[in-house]
Write a structure and sequence with these properties.
Blueprint (H helix, E strand, L loop, with lengths): L1 H19 L2 E3 L28 E3 L3 H20 L1
Antiparallel strand pairs: 1-2
The structure holds zinc ion (ZN).
Amino acid sequence: MLLFLIVLAAVAVWVVRCYFWPFTSCRRCRGKRTNPGSSRKRWGPCKVCGGTGQRQVLGSKTVHRVVRDTLTYHCNRKDR
Ligand SMILES: [Zn+2]
């Protein structure tokens, strides 16, 4: 039961995080946008994030879709 509550709390935190902060700094370049192995001879945008310095939090798209669908569902039901 305790484990269930911990998992539930973790999921809740994750959902809130995904909804309000869907982007986080890239793991590889840590938001610097350039290739971590950059030198004078060889440098360029980070390949992982494509030079944006950001990456989308895993599942954030799903969270946004679920929230949008839920709101749409409730709005439609109110109209009827
Ligand atoms: Zn990056």
